[in-house]
Predict the 3D structure of the following.
Amino acid sequence: MSSYSLYRSSIFHCIENANTLEADYYADGLMVVQHGKIVELGHYAQLIDQFSVDTRVTHFKDSLIIPGFVDSHLHYPQYRVIASYGATLLDWLNKYTFVEEQKFNDSDYAEEIAELFLDELIKNGTTTAMTFCTSHSQSVEAFFSAAQNRNLRMVAGKVMMDRNAPTGLCDDVNSSYFDSKALIEKWHNKNRLSYAITPRFAPTSTPEQLAQAGKLLAEYPNSQNTKGVLLQTHMNEASDEIAWVQELYPQSKHYFDVYDSYRLAGSNSVFGHCIHNTQDEYQRMAETDSKVALCPTSNLFLGSGLFDLDQLDYYGITTSLASDIGGGDSFSMFSVMNEAYKICKLNGSNLDPVRAFYLTTLAGAKVLNMDDCIGNFEPNKEADFVVLDLNASELIKQRLKSTTNIDDLLFCLMTLGDDRIVNQVYILGQCVYKKMEIH
Ligand SMILES: [Zn+2]
C-alpha cells in the first residue's frame, strides 16, 4: 500500500534561483506528499504514471493550491481589539490595547483567545505566524500550548515592557529577563514552535531592559544544528512615536540606533513597520541583515503612513508582509496584499502580484528563518498548504473568465479574495479545515 498522498489541482508557489524570483505554476498539477512533507511537484500528466493505478488522487477542480500564508507580525491578544475606532498609534495603545491586554493575566482568558485566534488564522489560510503575546508568561503558555496541540509552526514571545504602560502590564528588568529565559527553555525549538524575544518597542522599555533583551538574544544564537531565538519589535511606525523615542533616548542617532546599540539588530531580528526610516537607518539595517515586516492594513487603519518598498529593495533588506492584528483590520493576507498594492501605487510603483504572494509566503518564511522548511513546495519542505476555491465568489468566478495567465489570476485573487475562497487548509499533509458548504 502506498503511503503517498496525491493532490491534483492548479498549483502555484514561488521559487528563487540565484536570488531571482520565479512563479512556478502548473495549470494541471500534481503534488506528492508523504509523512507530512512535499516529495514532488509537477505536471499531472508527467508525474502520474509513476504511481500505481489504485493510488488515490484527491482532485480539486476549479481550485488553486498555494503554500500556507506566513504572517510575520501580529498580536494574538488584540483579537478583540480589532476594529477599534478613531485613534492613532499611541492613543490606540492606551485607549484599547493596554486595557484588553491586562485580561491576559487570567490563563483561562488567554486560552480562550488563543484558540479563537488560531481558528481565525487557519480559516484565512495562514499556517504560520509570529505573534506578540502580553507581558504575562501565562499568555505565552496559552498560545504555545494551543499551537502545539494543532501541530502548527508558530513563533511567539512574552512582551517585555517596564515603563509607560499600566502597572498591571509592566514587568521589570529582572523578571522580564528570567521569565523570557524560562519560556525559551521550555518552548523554543520544541516541535514546530520558536521563541521570539519581544520588547514591545523602545518607549515602553528602559535602557536597562533593552540591554537585558540584547543579552538574552546573544545567549541563543544560530548554530550549526540549532536555530537561535528570534526578536520582534516595532520601529518607525508613527511620527509622534519617533519624537518620543528621541526624547527618551537622546544619545541615539535615530530609532534604529536605539535597538542597534543594545545589540538587538541582526539576522534573527524582525522590525515591524519601518515606515519612516531615514537613509541611515535603511543602510544600517542592511549592514546588520535585520529583517522587516510591513503592515499595510494597519498603517492605513491607524493613519500611520506609507511604507517605501522600493527603498527596502534598493538596500537589499529582506522584507515580508504582515497583518498586524489588531492595528490591522483583517486576518486575510489577501487584504494585506491588496492594501500593499495600493500603498505602492500611491508611491508611484506597481506591486507585481507574484511578488505580493512571495511577500506573504516564501519571504515571510525567510524573515522568520524558516525558509528551509516552509514557504513553498520544494521537496522535503513541510506540507502546509491551502486550497483556494476559485468558484466560491461569484465575482471572482466571473472575473477569472477573462484571465489568461498566472499573473492576472494572482492579481485578481489578491484584489478580490478573502476567507470565502479558502476552501481547505492542510497542516503537515493533514486536512485541518474545510469551509462549511452552505446550500
Ligand atoms: Zn504590532
Notes: The first helix runs from residue 44 to 47. The domain at 69-367 is CATH 3.20.20.140 (TIM Barrel).
